[in-house]
Amino acid sequence: QKEVEQDPGPLSVPEGAIVSLNCTYSNSAFQYFMWYRQYSRKGPELLMYTYSSGNKEDGRFTAQVDKSSKYISLFIRDSQPSDSATYLCAMSKSGGSNYKLTFGKGTLLTVNP
Amino acid sequence: DAGVIQSPRHEVTEMGQEVTLRCKPISGHDYLFWYRQTMMRGLELLIYFNNNVPIDDSGMPEDRFSAKMPNASFSTLKIQPSEPRDSAVYFCASSTRGGGSSYNEQFFGPGTRLTVL
User: Using only C-alpha atoms, what is the Rg of chain A?
Assistant: First the structure.
């Protein structure tokens, strides 16, 4: 079993839809949970991060972490065609190991106008 | 700031040839990371440096791969000899020190698309 599992999709939604992306993980030592967005033929860029459990909101984006279930989610409200990209979840441990990221394989999202 | 710079952007080579990928991190960043991305395995950390010193190379697939960071503004990833299964996109990323509840973002370069025939 991989440490981080992510459904690769692809996921296709109409503009304005609510999008739900998620990852599961097996290593209880993970403390930092990130979502990266990667446009085609570009490098990943950080979208949001959460430390430990809880929710975090940034504009149309909400990240949730449920450590008891080892499950994280990213919600996108009022999705736009510009949100079309691959979304990668990533995780790391606390302390001196928080530089070593373990990524999910990514979910390809297309938002249709 | 120009961001993380990688060269070349594309590399096509034949099996058995030596390949050298280059990276210039963001000025002032003291951590540098090399990743490989494939459809099958996703994005994987190969090695990372702190203050030019390799800290963790457990992700380097085999002895054919080597990485160096001779100074704070330059790093190389070398594959010798290259094999078709090395075909992938290789990313370099850099960051500053994090810790505690603070996460310091890793900034990724545009990647080098390597094809080994």
Answer: 14
The Cα–Cα gap between B43 and B37 comes to: 4
If we measure between CA atoms, which residue out of A56, A48, A57, A53 comes closest to residue A66?
A53
B103–A34 CB contact, under 8 Å: yes
DSSP state of B73: T
Gyration radius of chain B over CA positions: 14
In sequence order, which residues have a C-beta less than 8 Å from that of residue A40 and are 6 or more positions away? Answer: A85, A86
Give the confidence band of A90 by pLDDT, cuts at 50, 70, 90. Answer: very high
Fill in the amino acid letter for B49: F
The predicted structure's pLDDT at residue A97: 58
Contact A99 B33 (CB under 8 A): yes
| Contacts across the A-B interface (CB distance below 8 Å) | 56
